[in-house]
Amino acid sequence: MPLLRLYAAVTGTLVVSYLAWPASARPWLLLVVALSPMFAVIRGLRRAPAGTRLAWGLLLGAIGAYSLGNAIWVWLIETAGRSTANDNVAVSGATSVGGVLALAASLAVVRQRGRGDVGGIIDSVIAAVGLTGVLWDAALWPALTAAGVSTGPQVINYINVFLAAGTIGALLRVSLVTGRQITSVRLLTAAVGCALLENVSAALTGRSGTDWVYVFYMAAFVAIGCAALHPSMAAITTPGRVPDDHLNNGRLVFLGAMLAIGPVVGGGRVMFGLPTDGILLALSSAGMIPLVMARIARLSNARREAERALHRLATSDPLTGLPNRSACVDRIDRELAAGPDDLAVLFCDLDGFKPVNDRLGHAAGDALLVAVADNLSAGSRGTDLVSRFGGDEFVIICRGPGAAEAMTDRIRAMVAGTFDTGGEQVRIGVSVGLTQAVPGDTTDDILTRADLAMYESKKTKTIGTLSLTAA
């Protein structure tokens, strides 16, 4: 924090005093301030844990590209008095490269912080396309056209604004995903906002005689340096919680607004007889549609997966992963609707489970239940259903000639062996109540008969054996 305070005080003083400096010294002052975050970002890059340094490396590259453009501008244009087309292209090209790297750095943060947040990356691009189109058509393009700026510089200006808007969108996404405000992220967002403000102000007013716009530009670099020096910088690339990426009203409003905002603004300008960049409006709208469709498709898939997960939770036993009582009852209902022929239900209760659970502990008891569940499932056919009915009770549903006999043979083989549980070899027995469906049966009828038969079989239970009673 002392280093942060010193850096903020020194560079902040240079920024606020910029207009008080002699005109000949201002370009050099700007170059110094623009270079100042490099040591802070290098420090942040070295402090970042291995595997999370991509964003900081890209940000360092962005500052280097911006500084190169600044150096060309200071040396060739301001100091040497040159202003050739090639010089201007070199400055603009370096600035655009810096913008690309800054956007890439912000998207890397989205990916790392949001654990591969592809949806957040798409949202950032959508926001960039929509907001840049509005800003361009409503303000920048009319001002640049009126000033006689040629097509090439206009395109570069549009690209720079687009890159800045996308970077802001990505950083805002990080803030929303984290669920808490990270000071370094807020400083980086402010930095890009200052850069965007400088770009827009310069386009609207022209740079000649308006050195005040460079104050915003310099403030952007100071904010980057402060973000890199702040203690919260480590949290930027630390993986956070998996983002909540579900289809809801808020996201639908956002996507609808981004899809409609360009045509609405462009159409409104036409209605009032104001000039509009129809080509760019058409291109941005055409690019927005597949982005929005891809985003909605991802959100819809996420919603379907969430629904499937809820269904699994509602119909599965959380310990063994087997279908639970509800799923078992539902399956018997459906099987009876198809007819009672060759439909058998086996109601199984473990013998000797409680002593294992009491002596070795609940963890060992849970492991034993999981082992039994795996064994029963491995011995079943694809059409059979093995469910955990509750506690140490399992219900098996099977259909077909000999299906019940094959399952009882499997259970008999299981209880003849031992289970490695709690560091010991244990044996259990199984009491089984078997019933065959008959015409007119209900689900309650079948389960009641099987349950009663199981309790009858318990009268002859022996650990390590199968006790079977048919009803």
UniProtKB/TrEMBL annotation:
SUPFAM superfamilies: Nucleotide cyclase. This is GGDEF domain-containing protein. The chain crosses the membrane at residues 25-42, 54-77, 89-109, 121-143, 155-175, 212-231, 252-272, 278-297. NCBIfam families: GGDEF. Residues 341-471 form the GGDEF domain. The lineage of its organism: Bacteria, Bacillati, Actinomycetota, Actinomycetes, Micromonosporales. Keywords: Membrane, Transmembrane, Transmembrane helix. InterPro entries: Biofilm_reg_signaling, GGDEF_dom, Nucleotide_cyclase, Rev_trsase/Diguanyl_cyclase. It comes from the Bacteria.
